[in-house]
Amino acid sequence: MLRCILRAKIHIAAVTESNLSYEGSITIDEAIVKKAGILPYEQVMISNLNNGERFETYVIPGKKGEICLNGPTARKGVVGDKIIIFCYSYVEDNKLKGFKPTIVRLDENNIILTIQ
Q1: How far is Cα 109 from Cα 90, in angstroms, rounded to an integer?
Q2: What end-to-end distance do the CA atoms of the chain give, in Å?
Q3: How does strand 102-106 pair with strand 2-14?
């Protein structure tokens, strides 16, 4: 059996831009994406701590410190909002023992504090 399990989380990122004109997605600092093990164009779920919105989109690697809500997702948050980014994967039951997600914690400037 396959189970949908949290594989990676970027904890408390600060939105730095909201770009309604873009086609859609979330742009995330490329170094953060790599440390979390999230691939470009991979699906993520975002939870906005400021307004309670939850939405899914895909990742585009960006510049240092950048967390930009693009296209329709720009309506889900504004600059300064704190968000949590989740990435899930399907994992076979026999591979779950000892499985732990990668958790990247950020400071208020989207600088990596810790990686678990």
Answers
A1: 32
A2: 27
A3: parallel
Radius of gyration over alpha carbons of the chain, in Å? 14
What is the three-class DSSP state of 72?
A: helix
The per-residue pLDDT string of the chain (116 residues; one tens digit each, 9 = 90 and over) reads 999 999 999 999 999 999 999 877 999 999 999 999 999 999 999 999 999 999 999 999 999 999 999 999 999 999 999 999 999 999 999 999 999 999 999 999 999 999 99
For the chain, how are helix, strand and coil distributed in percent, rounded to 5? 15, 50, 35
Residues with active-site annotation? 25, 58
- Say which DSSP state 24 is in: S
| Residues contacting 98, CB < 8 A, separation 6+ | none
Of the options 3.30.470.20, 1.20.1250.20, 3.40.50.300, 2.40.40.20, the CATH number for the domain spanning 2-108:
2.40.40.20
